[in-house]
Amino acid sequence: MDYEQTIMQIIASSGEARSLSLKAVRTARAGNLEEAGEMIKNAKTSLTKAHKVQTGLIQAEGRGEKTEITLLMIHAQDHLMNALTVRELAVELIEEIKERTALELELKGSVN
Fold first, then answer.
1. Which distant-in-sequence residues (6+ apart) come within 8 Å of 46 by Cβ?
2. Could you give the CA distance from residue 16 to residue 46 in angstroms, rounded to a whole number?
3. What are the pLDDT digits (tens) for 32-90?
């Protein structure tokens, strides 16, 4: 696999993870917490794929293989870091949604 294809794997997997994470938050807000949890798991799987590719490039450089730093590589790294951050925030938001939902149910029970 050539260098550009390798970098594109990072971009594609990171983009998928970011999209899944944001969709998971929207899904949780709609009340589908189990489905949101699955999306978060799938986002982690996509991030793991991207991270493995990145690790391979780092290990190659450690062996003395020169890695060309291109705008595409910088873009890929940006995508990966962004996707990691978005997933972490999505996990936190979903936890808040779960807590809010539980409180709402508790309040409804005490009012009735």
1. 13, 14, 16, 17, 20, 83
2. 7
3. 999 999 999 999 999 999 999 999 999 999 999 988 889 999 999 999 999 999 999 99
Give 30: exposed, middle or buried? Use CB within 10 Å, 0-12, 13-18, 19+.
exposed
Among 75, 82, 93, 98, the active-site one is 75
Take residue 85 and report the two structure tokens written for it: 């951050």
Q: How far apart are CA 84 and CA 50, in angstroms?
A: 10
Q: Would residue 75 show up in a list of annotated catalytic residues for this protein?
A: yes
Which structure tokens are listed for 104?
């709402």
